[in-house]
Write a structure and sequence with these properties.
Six copies of one chain form a homohexamer.
Chain A (H helix, E strand, L loop, with lengths): L1 E13 L8 H8 L8 E13 L11 H16 L4 H4 L10 H18 L3 E8 L4 E5 L4
Antiparallel strand pairs in A: 1-2, 2-3, 3-4
Helix pairs in contact in A: 2-4
């Protein structure tokens, strides 16, 4: 078993809030991350896939194909978008980085599986100091 | 003459667009950076100040005071805000990183000058790959 | 289960040595890290906590609260201090990065537990090239 | 159990190809990484070793000794070399980063074991965006 | 005058040597960088362009267009190539990073000028520790 | 004229203080950087040298020789030392990063000059966020 990781980026706007709360309640719970006119981040995305290297290529999975899969399933939806308003797989969810990692896992898992590899983790670095990692439902 | 640099961060939403253009024209000129529902970045801000080290402290300017000045004049206005809608010194301007650097220079220059040092440059890294630096009106 | 990581910093002086050794013996065992007049580092501290995201916030644990906990329990004791002489939880211990990671774990574990999350790991990067990670007593 | 990691570098030339394929077939499978006149990388190597800190030093393993072991067993063979043509432990293998990680594991494992610690993982960052990690045959 | 910088990458093989020297003489002068079977690097390329921001875009030069220019004039020739054997603008030159920076300047200067901006500098980071910067013939 | 930069590191203890002040006065002026039992940093040192590339090597100055010069003149004195107590060229000076940069300039300038190149700047990054650069007495 070898683990390979592809690093990608997206720059998006978002807001942490619950629609049933007032702006004041949201500010109390979520602080400045709840600014009603949005804020944004350069998110760093690290996708780790595992498997046996294939004898004919030496690859667990061609990293160019993994990069294309991430582009098609995740980045086209997230990059230069408003995560709360424009991203189908986050519809109706609280846009915490935790929930975003779970959402990205679900978008990627079938495609990684179809390639013959196993999705191991989805890591998101929201800032230099804050990151989240999800290893699937286990 | 010694140069000192303080690095700070802010996370904001913005959009590149001209109000007199249609969304299509804005997309043609500014691409995905013109997304009408905003996107955002983790901006890295590097402020460089120059002067003679003072004999009693060995400092050109106390970096903690430079950091406070940046916080009070710039970061409270920009961090976790929408640069197009909420930042007074960018009011009515195209929110390019170039114009943002010039705006930040104007916010900081009087305070740096009052401390007895000279503002040398304002550098903004919008992403790992794109940055802008302004050395004042010369 | 989702894992969240907060990155913090502290800058401290320390020395590797055993009091029962002579300076020569300490130099032979610990090399330049045993310099009797101290040396120091910018330590990077990465604290990882795991748990289920809470439905009302989407958070495993509020990263601002995790940051405050690290500040109160660890950074106020370590930052801009001499680890051998001024840090209660390292009293009488060899100040290796391994032992420092174990000490920090013990300082943080009760507070993370009280917040309803689980401390997963304490990682310390002493330099760009040397790091240590501790996952608790298991 | 504590985990320690040493970060090292090597700069090498290589090529992804299968000798039984034509240049065209190699280009189709491996893309530009198959350029017949070679290309190269600054590889970052992260070696993680685990064990109990020894009471007399506080170390799992002296990081200077780990660094020397990596230098002697791995870097002298790889650094400023052509991995396909000059590295004995990659002889006859496809030079994928996956296979390189497995090869480095086999070079290092006996020496780490002899020091009383356990080799935990070999991680190679081929570029900022592509990395591979191997945890041994399990 | 505002300065904008675009960061790009290329991964190439090269060798430092003079054809009129023997391998031994080359090794004496250039050390391991003269390995006859090549070595390679991940080069980081930083291109800085200066000018007045244009009123209609707020841009000194559209960074996407600068990126395309670098891609077309420089990266297609260098990336995943052997700099000594395959790069027309380095033909017959010693492949030092200094000479490479001068060569890249000459490739880029006409295109930057045609866009209405001024090429300010070409910086190449060959490794984390070694870099070169060229500001043109002045 | 081409500029080359070598990046080095040193890890040292220091303290900001004036001996004629009480501990309280030092704390008021220098804050936690004045801790009487020291603190320390991983300093990053960037030395930039300029000149014409020599036709026979393509080098402004052999970066290995620049690295050796920095090692012999600066790093052996600073690395794993107490800058206030053990570094001859800082004797009797306030150990601000500004003064340290000037001190390092004076240590390096004759050796760079003897090699036929020109010392351009000494930059010290004390932390990720604080840095100082000195361009000589002009």
């Amino acid at each position: 078993m070898v683990y390979i990781t592809r690093r990608e980026h997206f720059s998006s706007a978002h807001r942490l809030f619950r629609p049933e709360y007032s702006d004041e309640e949201n500010m109390r719970v979520f602080g400045k991350c709840s600014n009603p006119l949005w804020h944004g981040h350069n998110y760093v995305l690290l996708i780790t896939v595992k498997g046996e290297p294939k004898p004919e290529t030496g690859f667990v999975m061609d990293l160019k194909k993994l990069s294309q899969l991430i582009e098609e399933k995740v980045l086209v939806k997230l990059d230069h978008k408003n995560i709360n308003l424009e991203v189908d797989f986050m519809n109706g969810k609280l846009v915490s980085t935790e929930n975003l990692a779970i959402g990205i896992w679900e978008e990627l898992e079938p495609g990684v599986c179809a390639s013959g590899a196993i999705l191991h983790s989805v890591k998101i670095e929201e800032t230099e100091n804050n990151s989240v990692e999800y290893f699937g439902n286990k």
